[in-house]
Amino acid sequence: MNKSFGPVQVLHGVNFEARAGEVVSLIGDNGAGKSTLVKCIGGTYTTDSGEYLFEGSPVSVKTPRDSAGMGIEIVYQDLALCENLDIVQNMFLGRERTSGVVLNENSMEKAASETLASLSVRTVKSVRQRVSSLSGGQRQTVAIAKSVLWNSKVVILDEPTAALGVAQTEQVLELVRRLADRGLAVVLISHNMLDVLRVSDRIAALYLGRMAAIVERSAVNQTQLVELITTGRSDSVQGTATSATGVSA
User: Would I find Iron among this entry's keywords (predicted)?
Assistant: First the structure.
């Protein structure tokens, strides 16, 4: 996958793969190309060249609607939640269920409750709580639950623990693992190497728009990850990525 903005090439032959039932973490310093790669996957940007595979078949993704239609959901760092609405209203925002011209509140409330329960979320007292009353961890949980409500197959999480305390971080990381255990492909973007090492199955390191390495979690430690982020290489890391293009899930 290649992507340029005018004369500036941001992604250089990047190969990235998300597999069902696993957490793959995407790491890299600021400006490494993480956001651009995610926006190409999500259809916000179109790629200049390269192949986009979904479930083994080539697809064309030109808009966010295209990626959402395939089952790809992205939870950005700002969460995109409306504080003046309750949990149910946020989870169904823009996708409300109706009976004729009337909102089917019972159906939406039941689906929201079942989704949270299926993810073993126990920190939310009522799905009719306003988001403004929720803690940071609870808001992150709602945003993640919202992303899996629509039979998603791939969930991309952008810095989900960035502003959370220790206990809330623990809750979110447990939820990230449960998503993978349910068979979803989970992409975790994070600067916190301890979080990455805690929940990842594989780790992909970007450096100056190139994929420096894609490695198994068991093959690396924190020092090696920092070296990959800051220099783009680590002589002691096995599993350097190839230059082939494409995204598959």
Answer: no
